[in-house]
Amino acid sequence: MVMCCTWLRREQWLLVSENRRSHPHPFATFVKTSSLCLLVLVLGTGCLGGGRAASSPAAVPASCGGGAASAGVSLASAAATDPLVTFDSAWTIIRRTHWDTTYNGVNWLAVRDELRPKAAAARTRGELRLVLSDMVSRLRQSHFSIIPQEVSDATLGGGDGAARRGSSGTLGFETRLVGAAMVVASIDTGGPAWQAGVRTGWEVEAIRGCPSAARLALLPESLEPRRRALFAWQGTSMALGGQAGDTITVTFRDGRSTLHPLTLTYAEERGTITKFGNLPPVAAALDWHRVQRDGRIIGVIRFNIWMPVLAAQFDAAVDSLRGADAIVLDIRGNPGGVGGMSMGFAGHFLDSAVAIGEMVQRGGTMRFMANPRRVDTRLRPVTPFRGPLALVVDPLSGSTTEIFAGGLQGLGRATVFGTQSAGQALPSVPERLPNGDILYHAIANFIGANGKPVEGDGVTPNQLVPLDRRALLDGRDPALDAAIAWVTRQAPRRVVP
Questions:
Q1: Which of 23, 287, 458, 497 has the highest local Cβ count within 10 Å?
Q2: Where in the chain is the domain with CATH 3.90.226.10?
Q3: 331-356 mean pLDDT
Q4: What is the pLDDT of residue 7?
């Protein structure tokens, strides 16, 4: 199954090396626990379109290390067995499957000749992972990374293989970069942060005594705004990481510049813990509700990742909203997932089997065809939802999310609000390497319904609605509010008998 996923759940990647100080990199302090399948960033992985490692900035205070201590056991210091076998396997897989025979303008033979001696000299698995990560970063494309075996093999299954809840915790809020500060952009009204008095618009001043400004100062000035927003979110999310039941001290700054040092206790993550193939476990969550505007009923659906466990929940949500006047899909922060799900979800809103895009591989092209929904969850005949449809995206909306949003936008079926998406949309697969690690690698380019690659530019909203701290402090959500206002105007007023 092809994956189109830019990030996965917060897990202990345990990195590639136990001695990160000997491999300085501007993001080294950000990579102790990860919520990304961008994975090993110590070498500026091509998952961000970045390329080679940048020079390291000045050191930050010792208190500004990674997030919570890892709960797992790292294999990074274990001896590397037959490192050349693993290196050659990874190099050959990419040579065989990359859709572009120019390898994005990279001399792939020269990369092998340069890095193979370094692989041969690797004494530990961590050192070998550094070489492999360097190799895939040379492509300067998303969806190329090395997943450590100890992360890939993590399981949340019981004896019967059924998924069960893991120990990763949540503080119940999400942050985004607004201006030069990390700001609480959304909050769970039942979560630990809300119960402690935290509100949207508050700035995250410090985490575990480390000023947020110190982390943000690590970001290179040359970063494109979406990459800056992504890295800033990543570093903050990892610093805020912890296990359910543990505590953390976070200092917030409210709208009046008053500081609030709070000790918060992690709650269990929301959603269903699920695992897909060789990839690490992920928490998948979907919720929906109705709002009333000007006599119209608007359905709002939000889901955080494209995983099969959410398919039935999405079907049920749409069924419940068939009587609504319009629907808004809030897919901000959704990193992607199983690419094929985009076709089924699109079928809820398209009445004919039209292509939402094309997956271009070396050996051929596969069209992503919408599968119009003809029956509901109770097998009763239905037609796809025909009312106004709006989508809300941001720089953390990636991969399958971009395929879906770009397809519906390109076909004129949906209007998009928010800010430009990640531009990381290469269909990819995970493959086990001889040493047990996973090579996560792209196998195709994706061309949107508008005839342009989704990789790079991503999805540009029809109506750009950036985050605004003042609005957040006032309890408003500018992008979602704009989407709801638009569909309300588009929907016919209900006739009252």
A1: 458
A2: 283-426+444-490
A3: 96
A4: 40
pTM comes to 0.84
Could you write out the three-class secondary structure of the chain? Answer: CCEEECCCCCECCCCCCCCHHHCCCCCHHHCCCECCCCCCHHHCCHHHCCCCCCCCCCCCCHHHCCCCCCCCCCCCCCECCCHHHHHHHHHHHHHHHCCCCCHHHCCHHHHHHHHHHHHHCCCEHHHHHHHHHHHHHCCCCCCCEEECHHHHCCCCECCCCCECCCCEEECCEEEEEECCEEEEEEECCCCHHHHCCCCCCCEEEEECCEEHHHHHCCCCCCCCHHHHHHHHHHHHHHHCCCECCCEEEEEEECCCCCEEEEEEECEECCCEEECCCCCCCEEECEEEEEEEECCEEEEEEEECCECHHHHHHHHHHHHHCCCCCEEEEECCCCCEEECCHHHHHHCCCCCCCCEEEEEEECCEEEEEECCCCCECCCCCECCCCCCCEEEEECCCCCCHHHHHHHHHHHCCCCEEEECCCCCCCCCEEEEECCCCCEEEEECCEEEECCCCECCCCCCCCCEECCCCHHHHHCCCCHHHHHHHHHHHHHCCCCCCC
Radius of gyration from C-alpha coordinates of the chain = 22
CA angle 50, 331, 383 (to 5 degrees): 135
Q: What average pLDDT does the chain have?
A: 85
CATH, domain range 169-268: 2.30.42.10
Check pLDDT > 80 for residue 358: yes
Q: What is the pLDDT of residues 48-82, one digit of tens each?
A: 333 333 333 334 444 465 554 444 578 899 999 99
Question: What is the rounded CA–CA span in Å between residue 181 and residue 485?
Answer: 28
φ and ψ of 96, to 5 deg: -80, -30
Residues of the chain within CATH 2.30.42.10 domain(s) are 169-268
**Is there a contact between 394 and 416 (Cβ–Cβ < 8 Å)?**
no
* Helices 108-120 + 125-137 axis angle, to 10: 170
CATH 1.20.1260.110 fits domain 283-426+444-490: no
Task: With a cut of 80, say whether residue 173 has pLDDT above it.
Answer: yes
Give the angle 211-335-36 at the CA atoms, nearest 5°: 50
**Type of residue numbered 466:** P
Q: How many CA atoms lie within 13 A of 324 on its CB side?
A: 28
* pLDDT at position 30 over 50: no
Q: Tokens 């930050």 — which residue?
A: 60
Percent of the chain clearing pLDDT 70 (strictly above): 82
pLDDT (0 to 100) of residue 220? 84
Residue with tokens 């990481």: 241
